[in-house]
Design a protein that fits this description.
The structure is a homodimer. Chain A is built from 11 helices and 25 strands. Chain A has helices at about 10-20, 45-50, 65-70, 135-145, 160-170, 190-200, 300-315, 345-350, 400-410, 415-420, 435-445, and strands spanning about 1-5, 25-30, 70-75, 75-85, 90-95, 100, 105-110, 110-115, 125-130, 150-155, 175-180, 205-210, 215-220, 225-230, 235, 240, 245, 275-280, 285-290, 295, 330, 335-340, 355-360, 375-380, 390-395. The first copy, chain A, has 3 domains: about 1-110 and about 245-315, FAD/NAD(P)-binding domain (3-Layer(bba) Sandwich), CATH 3.50.50.60; about 115-245, FAD/NAD(P)-binding domain (3-Layer(bba) Sandwich); about 335-445, Enolase-like, domain 1 (2-Layer Sandwich). With about 450 residues, chain A is of the alpha/beta class. In chain A, helix 1 (about 10-20) packs parallel to helix 7. In chain A, strand 13 (about 215-220) and strand 14 form a beta hairpin.
């Protein structure tokens, strides 16, 4: 069987590796317009903020690896068209050579692309996006310039908040804008996001929330020099747009069933409306166990797993995704937040009737006074069924990075908050309290 | 209704508090021969090893708290007999006053007692056990003596290993004995326990494993001065017996159905063979989801939860325990180990046919070279059903203290190792890798 994979980042790599390792013997062709693969975008802010010196280790696979496994890999090759009826992919190499690859099975792993705010001045020099390695390099080069002092970051989601931290670590003045009233609004309720806002402000990042960018203005050299919002005008030397991503599905969105944001609709086998076409990673929808429905959640962790599922199904073993909870985490200047499932706000937006239980305690036993950070927890649950649909944790302790994985499984398994109260969570003073804050938050649920 | 609770430590307190908070109006009598309550025994080594200065904060409840809630609480009062037929408890106060308390419902929360090795010289001065606060005080006083230099700890389970660390932190020479070939043998397989052995040895603790104590010898003042094993004789100034605990069920073991170690047999409502008698905490059996059967696991975390379950059932709300996995953790000189369910060795001893998948990786993304400890993981699963029945984690990273809670839930929910491979575990370089070591260990399972 011949399998063509368009897109060689996390999802495409996971699909190809699953096929190569578990179902050897298939002919695999991988195509990507980029020159590099497996770039860990979430490492950009760590590198650009000089928490690590170089970007070299932000990759985990390269074309030669796949060539060595017998894969035909075409980098810097742009797919121009897919003929779904005749099962052919048309592409052009860097040197304009025409490529036609027939397929038995096609895998769309084209990921997502940054949303471009359609504002006057959007194409000025000095306005950047942040997804690809090359975009990270461009921003790193800008940060190196002495004259680039004031940086506006538009969008205080994960990417925006992280690159704002990086800019501050590089000694820049940083203005962080968002239309929402807090940072991280899509993953956390205000009571939690405010903790990150305070952390950002304490570290000298200027917050401009509830504020909408209207226009970018240029200096004489055509470089962005001002950002105009619905509230004021600010002098800036650089703008980084981080208002979000959308599915990069143009190649197929007119032929295959798509979600409201253009993402390719798939079932739990990652199969699209065309049985010979699979879609994986950020280009595809995904089943949310919190929502109990398909939705769109662009995360590298989902990309990897969806690739594994597609690889098995294409390889011949029927395997359903167990669905996801949108588990995520962020660490800014040592302040950590993790969440999974839906926030109260997100749940209400989706019409779910929910309640929540909040609690705050020290991570470790109260009698340990050193290195014992406080932890805020919120458990969100359906009021009637009491099924857990979300959890948020915030602390300087890293242990919350493990505990959120338990909540992710609890949502997947449709556990109620009352069942969670009885879950066997171990106790050792070095790590937690006899009445673990997760147990107490669950016990306290009205 | 009148409810008598015998034993006022974690399980008894949880039962009483559940009744008081959720089902007010019952008459509650609490009886305990001890003068203190709610002592966190797992804090003893932390206090005696001077990681904290004083024991004052190792308690979370006192008799007056319960008196204020209308409870009749009799401390330093020893129950001599229970007349199950006539539902009466006979006890004697410190001043030898006779107490008779009739009950509608009785709760046995008498905990566990240290196993005393029946060896010549077992009653010599300078031979200690470690369960109660008073026993912690006695050991602390011994550690303060200049002349007490060489300390033998018999039994390298959790309590023995922790008090060995404490003795070393107090500058003592420490000899740690165990009949097994490693420390922590009941919770960890050798490949994992060896990591703790190396850690103990590196910190100067003399390990004597695969060695059985035979006799204790005394000096002229009747103080223990030598320990004789099946291999050699050792001069010591103090012996701390930590060979384990057994259910403290003498008051009822001849009248109620008991487990092979004398623990009171209970169902998932914590009800004993006598419908008016409940048993909670270390005196009772408990349902193990790993084993899919009742067994005996003496842990404070189980004690708390079993008390909550009993309180609800007595109060009138039918509630089944969700069972436990025996989740546990230990941290010795900053080396952390957590486990849940059964080790390979424990599973095989119980006749289960199991396989396991091991993996080792850094906790955080590979490109973070600071504060990024390696983590060893073992997932144990039934060979045929591939149901996960155990997990072991070892690292200097504290994040394993959260991750083990996910495995505890996975065992409770009978997840297979293949389902675990697809679980939504988030990725952020600050906390983990794109291919999380838990995902990889599950993917690698043969």
């Amino acid at each position: 069987m011949k399998i063509v994979v368009i897109g060689t980042n996390h999802a495409g790599i996971a699909t190809a590796n699953t096929l190569l390792e578990q179902y050897p013997g298939h002919e695999i062709v991988m195509i990507d317009r980029n020159s590099n693969m497996s770039y860990l975008g979430c490492g950009t802010a760590i590198w650009v903020g000089r928490q690590i010196e170089k970007p070299d280790e932000l990759f985990y696979a390269k074309a030669e690896d796949f060539e060595a496994k017998g894969v035909k890999i075409l980098t810097e090759t742009e797919v121009s068209e897919i003929d779904f009826a005749n099962k052919k992919v048309y592409a052009k190499t860097k040197s304009d050579d025409e490529i036609i690859e027939a397929y038995d099975k096609l895998v769309l792993a084209t990921g997502s692309r940054p949303i471009i705010p359609n504002l006057p001045g959007k194409d000025l020099k000095g306005i950047h996006f942040l997804k690809l390695f090359q975009e990270g390099q461009a921003i790193d080069a800008e940060f190196a310039k002495e004259k680039v002092k004031r940086i506006a970051v538009i969008g205080a989601g994960y990417i925006g908040t992280e690159i704002a931290e990086a800019a501050k670590r590089r000694g820049k003045e940083v203005l962080l804008f968002d239309a929402e009233n807090t940072s991280l609004a899509s993953y956390y309720d205000e009571e939690f996001a405010k903790g990150m806002d305070e952390n950002l402000a304490q570290h000298g990042i200027e917050l401009h929330f509830g504020e909408l960018a209207k226009e970018f203005k240029a200096n004489e050299e055509g470089y962005v020099s001002q950002i105009v919002t619905n509230k004021a005008t600010y002098d800036v030397d650089l703008v980084i747009n981080c208002i979000g991503f959308t599915a990069n599905s143009a190649l197929a969105s007119d032929k295959l069933a798509t979600f409201k944001n253009g993402a390719i609709k798939v079932d739990k086998h990652q199969q699209s409306s065309d049985p010979d076409v699979y879609a994986v990673g950020d280009v595809a929808t995904i089943y949310s166990n919190a929502l109990q429905d398909f939705t769109y959640i662009a995360l590298a962790s989902n990309a990897v797993r969806s690739g594994i599922v597609a690889g098995h199904n294409i390889g011949g073993k029927e395997l359903e995704s167990v669905g996801v909870q949108g588990s995520n985490g962020i660490s800014i200047f040592g302040y950590n937040m993790t969440s999974t499932g839906l926030s109260v706000k997100a749940a209400k937006k989706l019409g779910l009737e929910v309640s929540f239980s909040d609690f705050e305690d020290k991570q470790k036993a109260w009698f340990l006074h050193e290195n014992n950070d406080s932890v805020k927890i919120r458990i969100v649950y359906e009021t009637k069924s009491r099924r857990i649909i979300g959890a948020q944790l915030a602390s300087k302790s890293e242990i919350i990075a493990g505990n959120i994985n338990m909540f992710s499984l609890a949502i997947q398994e449709k556990k109620t908050i009352d069942e969670l109260a009885l879950l066997d969570l171990f106790f050792l003073p070095h790590f937690n309290s006899p009445y673990n804050y997760m147990t107490v938050a669950a016990l306290n649920a009205k």
